[in-house]
Each structure stands twice: as structure tokens, then as C-alpha cells.
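Project standup — Tuesday

K.O.: blocked on the structure for the chain from last sprint. Re-posting the sequence here as requested.
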Amino acid sequence: MTKEKRAISPLREEDFSEWYQQVIKAADLAENSPVRGCMVVKPTGYGIWENIQKQLDHCIKETGHENVYFPLFIPLSFFEREAAHVSGFAKECAVITHHRLEEKQGRLVPAAPLEEPLVVRPTSEAIIGDAFSRWISSYRDLPLLINQWANVVRWEMRPRIFLRTTEFLWQEGHTAHASAQEALEETLKMLQVYHYVVKELLAIPVIIGEKSPAERFPGAKQTFTLEAMMQDRKALQTCTSHDLGQNFAKAFNIKFSNPAGELEYAHTTSWGMTTRLIGSMIMCHGDDDGLRVPPRVAPKQIVIIAIIPKPELKEAILNFADQVATALKKELFYDQPITVFVDKREKRGGEKVWEWVKKGVPIRLEIGPKEVQEQLLAVARRDAPVKEKKVMKVDDFVKQAASLLQEIQDNYYSQALAYRDAHLYTHLKTFSELKDFFTPKNEKKPEAHGGFVLAKWCGDTETEKLLADLKISIRCLPLEQSNTEGTCILTGRPATIDAIFAKSY
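H.V.: unblocked you, prediction finished:
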């Protein structure tokens, strides 16, 4: 039996890491830049990011936050004020030590040392904490709710486009509150906003939980996370929300006068989402023919492919395509006009079809002489086999377009959820079983193995060190706990905490 040819090589099951890189290339999402570890995000990739950004920004503003912008450069002394924060980011920091270039022996060299080195923003708690200390003096100034859309730099040792790059785009929220309870409520509220974005927009199922102490954001009191499973069964942290307690308030002297006139330290939070979400979308939904973009974040939701076999048929086909596009643009999908693109390029029809398959456009309409003559559309969905098409009347398709897009959106989520649930295991009870489960059969070229293991943990942070050799970690402690007694999978000691164990990105 002849093996069906697919658009992406290697296949997911053959080499998932290389498959991921080839999908990015085939979909024309991004490319490596001349600067090591940095990426150039191309129009399709940036279009996905813009759709995520636009809808998340709306959600953030609906919860009462306002957008600001802080400098890219942060004085080194600011980082030194919060020891745990510094130690957590120190190895990833890029530092500027000089300004001004001078020519020497035909080369440009840094000429003037800075009075104080500047850290290129890896995150903004330090510089925003300094601002909060000036902006807050009374309980009447609280809560203070801000958000920033920016770029950050973290010097990654093993960069990978969208997942770990030296520079990436993100959003970071920062708030200050009068009480610990208010700060915790804020942290969990924004976690639910992220859950909406990841689930409803990107169609990615997640486990909502709290990070273990070893995985906590540096300097945080508590860190909460959304953990998703990729198709190689590894976990990917999609978003995080941090209750910083009073740690940063004490480091940066963020005080307020309470109603009794007494000075107190504020309780702060921070929370963030990055272009990593695009990587999670690729690895969660992509198949061996390329990208599959959920309609709610697709830059082009419907592409009309004009197939022109003879020059004399060009005008009629293009006119028909434009008429269909005009009708579709009047239809709404989540209160926004459906985005439609007519591909009029002078390329072979099959070539154009495969380009859009690999780019993951949700719906393709193919229009040739027959469709024009019969006033019909050949409709292909990206959640169906590539060669599967349905012939529809124009009016019928236009009326159903929004509901078809919703069906595709729902299908992507249900497929990802079924995959996640099929690889979530609860039967492992001992460390030996855990080790065997996460050990690939082929150490030199590991096959897809493992998954999510839901097991009991005793809560002893020292036990997390046992996981290092297995290259796994506690991904989170699910917020929905069973509250049952059992034995710790790492030590065999009595335990009540449910924990998710997995390999991760």
C-alpha cells in the first residue's frame, strides 16, 4: 500500500521538532534573523499575533486596566533591590555597558563606559515598582491597574522560533492593592482572562493550576499557570499570573497611608502572555499538511482561489470571485466582518491550493469556469482531509459561513481536548513507574512518549530535585483538587496534593 504523500516532511511522528520548524517555514510565519536567537515575524505570523493582541487588549481594558509604556532599559541597581528576582533572571539578562561608537583601525568599537550598566528589559517589575513608589501615597490611589505591550530580551541558550527567542513580544500587567485578598483576587481574575483567550480564541485546552515552589516566578508569593499539552505530549506553559505579595513593595518602598493614617506596604501582582502562544497553536493544532489556524485568530478566515485555465476566462472568474468576497464581507463572525482574501495570482490552481493548506486558512473556496457557469462554490475546510470538498450554492454558503467557521473552531478544541485526555494518566503510583513512563524506548532519537501524569505529591520542595535526571517537572498543582489521601509518587510518603508531572518546553 502506497503511503499518502503529505505536505510537511518529516511527519510529526518521525521528528516533531523538525516538523515544527518546517511548518513555520511552509506557512511563512517567521524566520531566524541575522541576530542569533532573534526572529523576524512575517505578515501571516504577525497577523495572528495582532488578532490575539486586539482581543486580549479589549479584555484587559474591560477589567479596568489602562495601557502604559516603560523604558526598554533598566538600571542595574533596580534589579539588585529584589534578590530572589535577580537570581532568577541573572543568567538571561543582556547588559549594556557602553555608549558611543568610534572608529579604530577600520572598525567601530564601543568608546564610552556608562556610569551604571543598563539591563535590557527581561521583565518590568523592577522599573514599574520604582514608579509605583512615586505614584502611590494613599489608599485612595489603590488599586492601581496598568498594562504594557512591549518587547523583552532574555538571552536564551537554545532558541526556537516563537517558543524561546532572545527577543520576543509580550504583554505584562502590573497592579497594586491595599490587601492580600485583593491582590490574590486580581491574580486569579487575570488568569481567567488568559483562560478565555487560550481556550476560546486559540482553541487550546489547558489545566489551570498553581506552580510548585521550584517553578514559581522569581520573587513571587504564588504563581498560577495554564498548562497545555502539545502533540509530542510535552507541556507548554501558555500564560502565567503572579501574586507578588509585598516582596516587591518592600524592595521598592511602595507604601500607602491606610484610612487610619498608618503606613502599609502595598500588595502587588504581575501577569503576562507572549508570542509563545503562536508556538503553542502550531504544536497543538498543526498536522502533517501544515498549519491549522483557529478561525477566531486567523488573519484570513476565508480564501477564494481563482483557478484560471485560459486567459479569456480570467475576467469572468475574477468578477465572480469578487462578488462572492463582497457578499461574505458583509457577514459577521463574533461581531466582526469575516476576513476574506481573493487569490488572483497567476499561479497554477493546485499550487495555490497547497500554499493555503500549509498556511492553515480555515476555509478555501475554489472557483473555476464550472463554478462560474453553475453559480456554485467548491468549499474545502481545513479541519477536513485536503481533497474533501463540498459543492454549495453561493447564497447558502454565505448564510452559513459564520456557523461553518464556528464548527471549525469547535472541532479544533474538541480534537485537542481528546488528544490531551487520551494522554493524561492517573494509574502511576511509584517513582519507579514514573521513571519508566518518561524514559523513551530510543534514547538517541526519542519517539513521542510520556504525557501528563496526575499523581499525589507530598509538597516537600526538596523532592522536586529527584525529577531533574528524568527531565520532567511538576507543571502545576491543579486548582481543582480531589482532596483525597494517597501516597507521594516521589517518596511514597502520605500525600494529599494532586500534581501534574510532565516533560516541557
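K.O.: great, moving the ticket to review. The two ends are 37 Å apart (CA to CA). The longest strand covers residues 107-120.
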